[in-house]
Amino acid sequence: MSKLTVAKFGGTSVADHQAMLRCASIIKNDPSNRLVVVSASAGVTNLLVRLTQSKVALPEQAEIIEAIRKIQFNITQHLNCKDELNHSINNLLDELTTYAQVQSTSACSRIADAILSFGEQMSSRIFAQVLQSIGVDGHYFDVRNVMKTNSLYGKAVVNTVELHQNCQQQLAPLLTKQVIVTQGFIGQDEDQYTTTLGRGGSDYSAALLAEALDADDLAIWTDVVGIFTTDPRITDQARSIKEISFGEAAEMATFGAKILHPATLIPAMRHNIPVFVGSSKEPDKGGTKIQQKVDSAPTYRSIALRREQTLVTVKSPAMLHASGFLAKVFNVLAKHELSVDLITTSEISVAMTFDNPTGSTQALLNSTVVQELEQLCEVTVEHGLSLVAVIGNKMQKTNGVGSRIFDTIDGINVRMICHGASEHNLCFLVDEHQANQTVEKLHSALFA
Ligand code: ADP
Ligand code: ASP
Ligand code: MG
Questions:
Q1: Which residue from 203, 218, 195, 187 is spatially nearest to 261, judged by alpha carbons?
Q2: Is 45 a pocket residue for ligand 2 (Cβ < 6 Å)?
Q3: Which of 120, 190, 239, 415 fits a 20 to 30 Å CA distance from 327?
Q4: pLDDT at residue 135, as a whole number
Q5: For each successive 10 residues of the chain (448 residues), what is the average pLDDT?
Q6: Is residue 391 part of a domain?
Q7: Coiled coil where (predicted)?
Q8: CA 268 – CA 211 distance, rounded (Å)
Q9: How far apart (Å, rounded) are the C-alpha atoms in residues 327 and 346?
Q10: Quick one: residue 418, left, alpha or beta (phi over 0 = left, psi -120 to 50 = alpha)?
Q11: Are residues 342 and 213 in the same domain?
């Protein structure tokens, strides 16, 4: 069979008609692009998130839904088939209205996921028509037919065995005849309820589909010309990296480089599928190739930043020469499904960090969990911290890495340091308000 590339377009790439047309040209210019995975148009998922909250008054619901309709109709008005398409968008928005009303009176995570799925449901229908408008035989496919998950709403886990079987049976035959446009981010559980894979999850969906279809490569089209030495929004000194290994890029994604959802590279690595990251605005400018083997393995590759970290320090003299104390602490955390990110220990205290993307972790750590931990030890919880990760190669075996990094940021209060567990990173916590400054200083010292 001819080459298969899975192409994923993020929110800004499908934000408006011009943006969608640029993406459609990318598909048209390379016939190997046969499966297209789209995110919701920029801004739509954030609007939907507002509808997932409880007690949203009816006028506000209507206002949000109108704002979504406007974003989508601004695109469809440029298409010949706009009446038919607007009709199907309106049907979806009617369905959304019903869900929003239910959610506002009795909020639950199952309905929240149903609500969140509408952005991708709409953008994929529209993008298939944009492809048609430039002469590409693009067809809509509902990913929920193949992307089967468990019922952990908001962060559903995909059944990769079922996904593989379903893709081979349902999608592979279609891909020999036409270009298929489907949704990132969403799936379906055993009870046929819609699920979502977590914010930013479309990258991960695309990688899972690439794996299930034995694709030759995966292209992630976004708003920047590849993966940079750090987030280009933090410093204009950041520059695009031509080639990077799976290990380094996975580490970047894990440590907060928003360019890729943290799980994206897991399927790609499992199946050795090279990943390209480029800008749909400037496709000719190239981008970053992520693959197993790369020519260079520099000590310093990039700097990632993850904001909103919570640091919990537990302290007890009972820890001294005693066994079992940490097990008790981790039992409490496991009971509340809290996952610890980084950990450092001293004789009588342990410091742990928690990622806090949604705020629910913060709520838990402020109340129930602290009370339970306080039965065992003294507990301190601190918010407002950022995790800086310097990513590279053989960092734990290279002399002078620590001094170079910490001399550079002399004067900035470093709260916790983790080094040595991974050969690919050295990371530490700083106060949120010093985070950008820390990254800028390090970037100019390590990459100038
Ligand atoms: P999409 O909607 O296409 O998925 P995202 O907004 O999720 O796009 O990710 C792209 C953004 O990631 C960029 O605009 C950039 O600000 C941010 N980013 C963070 N770290 C990096 C990095 N190391 N290289 C490039 N972009 C980065
Ligand atoms: N639309 C979803 C979000 O905004 C998924 C994605 O864009 O990857 O989180
Ligand atoms: Mg993204």
A1: 203
A2: yes
A3: 415
A4: 97
A5: 93 98 98 98 98 94 98 97 96 98 94 98 98 98 98 96 98 96 98 97 98 98 97 96 95 90 96 98 97 94 94 84 82 86 87 79 76 90 94 92 95 90 90 97 95
A6: yes
A7: none
A8: 7
A9: 16
A10: beta
A11: no
What is the Å distance from ligand 3's center to 49 Cα? 16
DSSP structural state of residue 397: G
pTM above 0.85, yes or no: yes
User: Residues with Cβ within 6 A of ligand 1?
Assistant: 10-13, 39, 200, 222-224, 227-228, 230-233, 257-259, 302
The DSSP call for residue 351 is E
Per-residue pLDDT at 360: 67
Q: Domain check: are 181 and 329 in the same one?
A: no
Substitution site in 12, 113, 185 for ligand 2 pocket (most atoms within 8 Å of beta carbon): 185
Pull the structure tokens for residue 12.
Answer: 């800004």
Which range of residues forms the domain containing residue 145? 5-223
Give one DSSP letter per residue of 167-198, joined into a string.
IIIIIHHHHTTSEEEEESSEEE-TTS-EEE--
CA gap 127, 76 in Å, rounded: 10
Number of domains observed in the structure of the chain: 2
